[in-house]
Specification:
The protein has about 190 residues and is mostly helical. It contains 6 helices and 4 strands. The chain has a single domain, classed as Cobalamin adenosyltransferase-like (Hypothetical Protein Ta1238, Chain: A, Up-down Bundle), CATH 1.20.1200.10. Strands 1-2 form a two-stranded antiparallel ribbon.
């Protein structure tokens, strides 16, 4: 089996139910989601099973959900059957809450860094934010898009932030705080 088809040589790509220019906003978004999935895979290679089993399980599920997002975004059929539902969003919210409870209180802005895995999760967070911005453009310009993807991406970036902090915490590495900023987060946990 050959992996090249030559059908994209003229700048068009195949979608589910049609074709589009490779620089179409829809292709941009699912391309960014694919890039994000690669960073999730990289983060997984930087985490050991013993210390980070729960986060590895999360990331494994997220990789499949990102594939669902890509498929949904590539679907231009008149009556598409979307794969991504609200359920993974609820799961992410529960995991974010658990991770935030585990991490030290957050008082200042955090710079990407710490352990290699935490840094990779911060890259995943920023790529997720880019995909989310692209989704806003897509849903403004095109009808028939699974809007659950936008909501999922919004929650996913929060998950990556919380996970990066816990990865550093479990490794005994302090988050890198933004030095020029004062205390900006005031939560009940901080007041204890």
């Amino acid at each position: 089996m050959k992996i090249y088809t030559k059908t994209g040589d003229t700048g068009k790509t195949g979608l589910i139910g049609g074709r589009a220019a490779k620089d179409d906003i829809r292709v941009e978004v699912y391309g960014t989601v694919d890039e994000l999935n690669s960073f999730v895979g990289k983060a997984m290679t930087e985490l050991d099973e013993e210390t980070y089993a729960d986060i590895l399980n999360d990331l494994h599920a997220i990789q499949h959900e990102l594939f669902d997002c890509g498929g949904d975004l590539a679907n231009v059929m008149k009556e598409p059957q979307f794969k991504l539902t609200e359920e993974p969003i609820t799961v992410l919210e529960n995991r974010i809450d658990a991770l935030v409870d585990e991490a030290p209180p957050l008082e200042k802005f955090v710079l990407p860094g710490g352990t290699p895995a935490a840094a990779t999760l911060h890259i995943a967070r920023t790529v997720t934010r880019r995909a989310e911005r692209q989704m806003v453009t897509l849903t403004t310009e095109v009808e028939g898009v699974n809007v659950v993807v936008q909501k999922y991406l919004n929650r996913l970036s929060d998950y990556f932030f919380a996970a990066a902090r816990v990865v550093n915490f479990r490794a005994g590495v302090q988050d890198v705080e933004y030095a020029r900023g004062g205390k900006v987060f005031h939560t009940k946990k901080n007041e204890k």
